[in-house]
Amino acid sequence: MIQERLHNVLDSLTPGCRLVAVSKYHPAEAILACYNEGQRVFGESHEQEIRQKHELLPKDIEWHFIGHLQTNKVKYIAPYIDMVEACDSLKLMKEIEKHAAKNNRVIKVLLELHIAEEESKYGLSLDDCRRLLADGEWRDMQHVSICGLMMMASNTDDEEQIRREFTVAADFFDEVKAEYFADDDNFRERSWGMSSDFKIAMQCRSTMVRVGTYIFGERQY
């Protein structure tokens, strides 16, 4: 039962960590079942799907875009998206800034890191992220708020490898926070951990875990 599995996750969260319920490929009814239990943050990764759900569901839901976001899709979600969790380029950040400005909004973003040993994953290398921040163009953006970092661990059963990758991300967060965001309270999010590894992620200082399959079961469409 969705409600029971939701509460199992919520009850296991460490202090300071919150749940992004990953609802992609699941119907609005499943989201509403979680909403009625008090869950307000949901993660989606397809522009058309999230737009349809936004129109159907309560307007106090906090929608996070968690997949790879194409620049040409930003304009469709800019009116209502709360956070883009996977910002992997300055080009994408500029597009978010442009369309957030048009909608008179500030959109939160997380910089996506590529730490996992898998070529298929998106994200910035640590050096690319350092270069993006050092370049400083982001400082002039009035409608984008960089709120932290996001990453996915390798898809492996090796828990020590997963822990190493999360730890690299946590240490890098400290570096970036000290260098660029020491006086910015908005820069505080560490989004790592999914259904298979969120308990390890919380031990590695995650502040947001993205859990879908554990709560909703296998995708429904």
Short summary of the structure?
The chain is α/β, with parallel strands linked by helices. It contains nine helices and eight strands.
What features would you describe in this structure?
- The chain has 221 residues and is α/β, with parallel strands linked by helices.
- The protein has helices at residues 2-12, 28-35, 47-56, 74-77, 90-102, 126-135, 159-180, 198-203, 213-216; strands at residues 18-22, 41-44, 62-65, 83-87, 107-113, 144-151, 189-191, 208-211.
- The chain has an eight-stranded parallel sheet.
- The two termini are 18 Å apart.
Q: Tell me the fraction of residues in β-strands, as a range.
A: 15-25%
Low-confidence parts: none
SSE order: HEHEHEHEHEHEHEHEH
Rough shape?
globular
User: What can be said about the biggest beta sheet?
Assistant: 8 strands, parallel
Evaluate the radius of gyration.
Answer: 17 Å
Query: How confident is the prediction overall: mean pLDDT?
Result: 95
Could you give the count of β-strands?
8
Q: Classify the helix fraction into a percent range.
A: 25-40%
- The termini sit apart by 18 Å
The number of helices is: 9
Q: In which order are the strands of the major sheet placed?
A: 7-6-5-4-3-2-1-8
Global structural class: alpha/beta
Write the topology of this structure:
Elements: H1 2-12, E1 18-22, H2 28-35, E2 41-44, H3 47-56, E3 62-65, H4 74-77, E4 83-87, H5 90-102, E5 107-113, H6 126-135, E6 144-151, H7 159-180, E7 189-191, H8 198-203, E8 208-211, H9 213-216
